[in-house]
Amino acid sequence: MKSSIILFAMACIVIITASCSRDNINEKKNWAEIFQKRNIDSASFEVYDNTHDQVFYYNKERTSRQFSPASTFKIMNSLIALETNLAPDIEYIIQWDGVKRWNEKWNQDLTMEQAFEYSSEPYYQALARKVGRPTIQKYLDSVKYGNMKIGDSIDRFWVDGSLKITPDEQVRLLKLMYFDKLPFSNRSQRLVRSMMLREKNEEYKLSYKTGTNSTGNGYVCQLVGYLEKIEVQKGIETKEEETNYRPYFFAMNFETKTKDVDFSELAKMRVDITKEIFRELELIK
């Protein structure tokens, strides 16, 4: 009974694709100001509050539009490699091919954990080639990841426009992974969650993955992940202090007006916007 209730709730969390229309979907038009003061006009943000079964969103149209996942696909890429045992663990090393690239951190032998942190495209391209098309397609289909299309290039389909996924679908994916409900072992999902953790303090834990894709004159920038609000309460039965983690799953998507941007500043901006939205929701200080 419990598992069926969980699955029903998961089926209902998405804004656009959900067939169960309820009073738990909240539009936040004021979030436009958070983007506009940073000279961003085209943007969306979606948050799912798991504890209270509430969805908050800005720009419904954009949250339901499919985009190339770009480097956010490294979440899925890692899950597949771990599940197939191609990568025994997140210390799995792929040697540098000797080609100098724009990001100096990529120009070395890397473990999966390092490659995930540095968002190394060469590492994950090599990983996809090693896994192979049939296996990747099998997992795209079983997860129902976006449009589930690989296209012609086994090592570029997540950036060349073949594979696409909505921010709304990203939220669903994150929730399923958080609760070990994807068609992967609990271990594989736990290891990927460990790589996503980027910030931890007494108030919350913040886990995420960035993604950036070229489009026209600018970039489509994404940040997908979850905030775990830490709450210490006395147990009803034990009367002792217990630590609870309240998850909030989110997906951000916006476009820059130019390619003349600093990538480190762009990465910081995404996190700053996310924290500002969580402060507006009174989830963090």
Task: Write structural notes for this entry.
With 285 residues, the chain is α+β, with helices and mostly antiparallel strands. It has one domain: DD-peptidase/beta-lactamase superfamily (Beta-lactamase, 3-Layer(aba) Sandwich), CATH 3.40.710. It contains 10 helices and 9 strands. The strands form 2 sheets. Strands 1-3-2-9-8-7-6 form a 7-stranded mixed beta sheet, sandwiched between helices. It has a two-stranded antiparallel sheet with strand order 4-5. A hairpin with a 2-residue loop joins strand 7 and strand 8. Helix 4 runs antiparallel to helix 9. The chain starts with a helix and ends in a 5-residue tail after the last helix. The N terminus is likely disordered.
The neighbouring-strand order within the major sheet is 1-3-2-9-8-7-6
Beta-strand portion reads 15-25%
Distance between the termini: 37 Å
Q: Going by CATH, what is the homologous superfamily?
A: DD-peptidase/beta-lactamase superfamily
Q: In sequence order, what are the helices and strands, one letter per element?
A: HEHEEHHEEHHHHHEEEEH
Q: What is the CA-based Rg, rounded?
A: 19 Å
Task: Name the overall outline.
Answer: globular
- Could you name the ranges where pLDDT drops below 50 across 5 or more consecutive residues? 1-13
Helix content: 25-40%
Number of domains: 1
Question: How would a crystallographer describe the biggest sheet?
Answer: 7 strands, mixed
CATH class group: Alpha Beta
Summed over residues and divided by their number, the pLDDT gives a mean of 92
Architecture in CATH?
3-Layer(aba) Sandwich
Structural class: alpha+beta
Q: Got a strand count?
A: 9
